[in-house]
Amino acid sequence: VTDEVVAVVAALQEEGHLLEDMALYGNAAGGGLVAGSVLKMRDQGMGMPAAVVMWGPWTDLTNVGDTWVTLLNQDPVLGNASYDAFSNAYADPMDQKHPYVSPVYGDYTQGFPPTLIQVGTKDRILSDSVRQYQAMDTAGVDVKLDVYEGMWHVFQSSHWNIPEALMARLKMAKFLNERM
């Protein structure tokens, strides 16, 4: 699937759009898809966008983060279902640690755009956000982890007018305005 994202960005470039004028955004599985796609763009020498924003990104399809268990009955969006079937539908289990599939395993020492990760403390994949932040921060990436108390998976769009969602979207706009 990362091939399709890379193809869209390449098509935009062919139309004259510059990478430094682009930001990529994704939430949930889309957050992991964006991060994996940017790693692929970088590795293929195509360059990278000016910024990346991820809301509650699913960045490890092996589902080993502790919050998959500790927040099992806390997240009203993701509930208590197993996500292994979704992981296996997306990628063969033997490929699930590939950085383009599970970007938490990526090498960020070769560069990555400034990144904002937003997540709630009740999001079952909170561990993915924390581990993604740590992988990027350790490599020196300009990355910010913005955590919201009591919020669930992708709260920013599911309850548009709650104060936390409003604040998160304002912070995202500020982040993008400062980098583009």
Produce a short descriptive summary:
The chain is α/β, with parallel strands linked by helices and 180 residues long. The chain has helices at residues 2-14, 29-43, 67-70, 84-90, 126-138, 155-158, 163-179; strands at residues 23-27, 51-55, 115-120, 143-148.
Describe this structure in words.
It is a single chain. With 180 residues, this protein is of the alpha/beta class. The chain has a single domain (2-179), classed as 3-Layer(aba) Sandwich (Rossmann fold). The chain contains 7 helices and 4 strands; from the N terminus they run αβαβααβαβαα. It has helices at 2-14, 29-43, 67-70, 84-90, 126-138, 155-158, 163-179; strands spanning 23-27, 51-55, 115-120, 143-148. Strands 1-2-3-4 form a 4-stranded parallel beta sheet, with helices on both faces. Helix 5 (126-138) links the parallel strand 3 (115-120) and strand 4. Helix 1 packs across helix 2. The longest helix is centred in the last third of the chain and has 17 residues, at 163-179.
> N- to C-terminal separation?
26 Å
- Overall pLDDT metric: 95
User: What is the CATH C level class, in words?
Assistant: Alpha Beta
How many β-strand runs?
4
CATH architecture: 3-Layer(aba) Sandwich
How are the elements arranged and paired?
Elements: H1 2-14, E1 23-27, H2 29-43, E2 51-55, H3 67-70, H4 84-90, E3 115-120, H5 126-138, E4 143-148, H6 155-158, H7 163-179
Pfam families: Abhydrolase_3
InterPro entries: AB_hydrolase_3 (IPR013094), AB_hydrolase_fold (IPR029058), GDXG_lipolytic_enzyme (IPR050300)
Organism: Ostreobium quekettii
